[in-house]
């Protein structure tokens, strides 16, 4: 979930911008010139995936897959998601200009954590460990993203507490769906194209 | 979905140097997002109206866009007056509406929508490619600019690929429902998109190497600032200073 | 003089089957050769070895009289041999047609003013004059194909390698490509499944299977 302009307080906005600037700098340092096309094309794929709506009861939710993006891109998740969010702001006005830092951090930092936790599991290479990695990536990715949004609202003002609670509750079904989908995707990729995951078979 | 519906106009704003527009939108957003003065918001509103007239865009198209993105803001605006502590002006059972909460919600609503409209009018009226080009001239790190170029370029190719896959799946009688089977099918779709994209990225890279690519991107064309652009950026700076004084006094 | 000479080339993909084994091939200056063959027999692999995108495990790659091994060797090769990929979307990545065509020449260090002239001349050559500012990803399949060709011709190559150039073209556009190719004074090597097209634009055609070239007219698939 992306926060629009004009809602958050200045300290929250500035903290988000600084953290994202740091993460992006780290990511760009790890990005070699020759791999720019590859990283960008994978980010395009994640961008398209985020446009996919999957049914949930009478409604639908769109995929986020920040945990999976984290596993594949590592620290480069920061620049990749910064760009995705920038494009979303210009193309559909989702998110905002002043909240670019905050929103990128909310999505990318959980992704980076998922990278460090799930990679050892992928290296084991057993179907169970891969499934576990997928579930963990989604749980970490989505629940932290939701938690960060809730915290940012609460830090902005006590009046946001009910909304923050609502945000947390709304993330629960998404966690379940993403856990299933990420686990299946990881097993598929591990079978068909382990290079993407950075593990050699 | 991925079209740039506002980018293809021919107006005073459309022809303005994208660098000026980016800088202006950025500072405008910062000032408006951080102000708590109604007078600053009124001046911001006045400005947005002027720019709107200059873009010659259709009012209904823009309003439609604004409405779609307002769902979360509206939710906030409904809840905030009741959850914000302050002087109670209306009570409905356990719900209490506070004066402070009401004004807080009003400000958020105005600020969000002013910035939103400004982004549509100034930035969505440029193609992503010219924006990226302008960011290059504004000294955004070159790798980041290259990522924008490539990502946007291949979003189209991959989206078309997704549509083809989805069509093929539907032709085999797949109907999305809330169940594991549906989620698994979507997972397969996304995984094959990722694999196809990965393979494609290898071919794209090879094709670039064949044309002498060694890691740096040559820039073929450069922007030129016209006298009009210079005059306008001066006027814009004066306006922003004025707005900032009102906003942060 | 032989512009391309492959001697005893063997190639296998990592974790994959052997694709080429002891392959020999040569292309003389001015020659125009067509290659047909079943899917998955290594035709694209063969083309990629010529420009050094893949390195054979054994054998010699001799281009323009010099044996080529390192990336630097092949950098020079690639400025002389233009390689057109199967899917134009793999090749066209710039926002506008002009920038797409300028990419190669600029990489070769040609000055900007010169490049601008090359762009309009090359577009004229493929019949797309005035397309400079068009957005590449919004072009039709046939136009993309022609822009991809123009982006190679802009580097003034001596040889062209075309990998299934007619796959996505309608008869009208195939005719256009035939007339462009026959106007060029280059050597080229075309891989295609379209026998009629190959006979129109090449002097010799081969059938490629099991890592060997057989004359197409003695072979009836």
Describe this structure as you would to a colleague.
The complex is a heterotrimer of chains A (201), B (249) and C (221). Chain A is mainly α and 201 residues long. Chain A has one domain (10-197): Orthogonal Bundle (Arp2/3 complex 21 kDa subunit ARPC3). Chain A is built from seven helices and two strands; from the N terminus they run ααββααααα. Chain A has helices at 10-30, 36-49, 66-73, 77-92, 100-124, 127-156, 161-192, and strands at 53-56, 59-62. By secondary structure, chain B is mainly α. In chain B, helix 7 (142-171) crosses helix 8. The mean pLDDT of chain B is 89. Chain B has two domains: 18-133 and 225-248, no CATH class; 146-210, no CATH class. With 221 residues, chain C is α/β, with parallel strands linked by helices. Chain C has a single domain (2-218), classed as Rossmann fold, CATH 3.40.50. In chain C, 36% of the residues lie in helices and 27% in strands. In chain C, helix 5 crosses helix 6 (141-153). Chain C starts with a strand and ends in a 6-residue tail after the last strand. Chains in contact: A-B, B-C. Chains A and B meet through helix 1, helix 2, strand 1, helix 4 and helix 7 of A and helix 1, helix 3, helix 4, helix 5 and helix 7 of B.
Question: What is the fold's blueprint, element by element?
Answer:
The complex is a heterotrimer of chains A (201), B (249) and C (221).
Chain A lengths: L9 H21 L5 H14 L3 E4 L2 E4 L3 H8 L3 H16 L7 H25 L2 H30 L4 H32 L9
Antiparallel strand pairs in A: 1-2
Helix pairs in contact in A: 1-4, 1-5, 3-5, 3-6, 4-5, 5-6, 6-7
Chain B lengths: L17 H17 L3 H18 L3 H11 L1 H13 L4 E5 L2 E4 H24 L5 H10 L4 H30 L8 H31 L16 H22 L1
Antiparallel strand pairs in B: 1-2
Chain C lengths: L1 E11 L5 E11 L3 E5 L6 H8 L7 E6 L2 E2 L3 H10 E4 L3 H4 L5 H11 L4 H14 L15 H13 L5 E5 L7 H13 L3 E5 L3 H7 L2 E6 L2 E4 L6
Gyration radius from CA atoms of chain B, angstroms:
23 Å
> What is the number of strand segments of chain C?
10
Uncertain parts of chain C: none
Helix content of chain B: over 70%
Helical fraction of chain C equals: 25-40%
CATH class placement of chain C = Alpha Beta
Return the structural class of chain B. mainly alpha
The CATH H-level superfamily of chain C is P-loop containing nucleotide triphosphate hydrolases
For the sheet with most strands of chain C, the description reads: 6 strands, mixed
Nearest-integer average pLDDT of chain C: 90
How many individual domains of chain C? 1
Main sheet characteristics of chain B:
2 strands, antiparallel
State the end-to-end CA separation of chain B: 42 Å
- Assembly type of the chains comes to heterotrimer
Global geometry of chain C:
globular
Number of domains of chain B: 2
Distance between the termini of chain C: 32 Å
Per CATH, what is the topology of chain C? Rossmann fold
**Low-confidence sequence ranges of chain B:** none
Globally, the shape of chain B reads flat
């Amino acid at each position: 979930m992306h926060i629009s302009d004009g809602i958050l307080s200045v300290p929250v906005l500035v903290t988000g911008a600084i953290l994202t600037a740091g993460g992006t700098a780290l990511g760009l340092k790890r990005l070699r010139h020759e791999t720019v096309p590859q990283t960008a094309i994978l980010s395009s794929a994640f961008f398209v995936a985020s446009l996919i709506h999957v049914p949930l009861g009478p409604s639908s939710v769109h995929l986020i897959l920040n945990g999976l993006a984290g596993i594949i891109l590592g620290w480069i998740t920061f620049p990749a998601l910064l760009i995705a969010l920038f494009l979303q702001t210009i193309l559909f006005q989702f998110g905002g200009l002043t909240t670019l830092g905050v929103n990128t951090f909310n999505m990318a930092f959980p992704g980076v954590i998922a990278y460090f936790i799930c990679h050892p599991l992928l290296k084991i290479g057993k179907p169970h460990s891969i499934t576990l990695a997928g579930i963990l990536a989604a749980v970490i990715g989505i629940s932290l993203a939701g938690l960060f949004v809730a915290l940012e609202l609460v830090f902005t003002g006590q009046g946001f507490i009910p909304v923050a609670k609502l945000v947390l509750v709304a993330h629960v079904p998404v966690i379940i769906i993403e856990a299933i989908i990420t686990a299946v995707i990881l097993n598929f990729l591990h079978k068909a194209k382990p290079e993407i995951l950075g593990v050699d078979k | 979905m991925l079209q740039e519906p506002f980018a293809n106009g021919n107006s005073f704003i459309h022809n303005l140097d994208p660098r000026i527009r980016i800088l202006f939108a950025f500072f405008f957003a910062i000032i408006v997002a951080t102000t708590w003065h109604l007078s600053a918001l009124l001046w911001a509103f006045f400005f947005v109206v002027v720019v709107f007239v200059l873009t010659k865009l259709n009012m209904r198209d823009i309003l439609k866009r604004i409405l779609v993105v307002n769902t979360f803001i509206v939710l906030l605006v409904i809840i905030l007056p009741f959850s914000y502590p302050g002087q109670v002006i209306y009570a409905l059972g356990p719900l209490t509406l506070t004066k402070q909460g009401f004004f807080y919600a009003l400000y958020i609503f105005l600020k969000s929508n002013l910035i939103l409209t400004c982004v549509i009018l100034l930035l969505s009226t440029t193609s992503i490619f010219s924006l990226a080009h302008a960011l290059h001239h504004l000294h955004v790190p070159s790798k980041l600019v290259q990522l924008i170029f490539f990502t946007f370029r291949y979003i189209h190719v991959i989206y078309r690929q997704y549509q083809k896959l989805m069509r093929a799946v539907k032709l085999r009688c797949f109907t999305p429902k809330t169940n594991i089977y549906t989620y698994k099918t979507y997972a397969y779709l996304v995984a094959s998109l990722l694999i196809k994209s990965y393979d494609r990225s290898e071919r794209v890279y090879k094709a670039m190497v064949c044309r002498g690519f060694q890691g740096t991107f040559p820039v073929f064309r450069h922007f030129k600032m016209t006298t009009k652009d210079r005059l306008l950026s001066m006027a814009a700076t004066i306006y922003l200073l004025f707005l900032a004084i009102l906003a942060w006094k | 003089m032989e512009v391309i000479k492959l001697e005893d080339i063997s190639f296998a993909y990592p974790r994959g089957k052997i694709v080429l084994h002891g392959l020999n091939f040569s292309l003389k200056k001015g020659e125009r050769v067509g290659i047909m063959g079943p899917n998955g027999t290594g035709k694209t692999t063969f083309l990629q070895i010529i420009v050094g995108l893949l390195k054979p495990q054994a054998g010699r790659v001799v281009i323009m009289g010099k044996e080529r091994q390192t990336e630097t060797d092949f950098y020079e090769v690639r400025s002389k041999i233009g390689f057109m990929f199967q899917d134009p979307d793999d090749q066209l990545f710039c926002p506008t047609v002009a920038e797409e065509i300028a990419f190669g020449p600029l990489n070769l260090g040609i000055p900007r003013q010169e490049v601008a002239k090359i762009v309009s001349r090359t577009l004229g050559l493929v019949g797309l004059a005035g397309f400079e500012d068009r957005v590449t990803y919004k072009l039709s399949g046939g136009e993309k194909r022609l822009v991809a060709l123009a982006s190679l011709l802009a580097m003034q190559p001596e040889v062209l390698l075309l990998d299934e150039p007619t796959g996505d073209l309608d008869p009208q556009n195939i005719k256009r490509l035939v007339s462009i190719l026959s106007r060029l004074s280059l050597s080229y090597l075309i891989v295609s499944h379209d026998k009629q097209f190959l006979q129109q634009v090449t002097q010799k055609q081969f059938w490629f299977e099991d890592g060997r070239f057989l004359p197409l007219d003695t072979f009836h698939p």
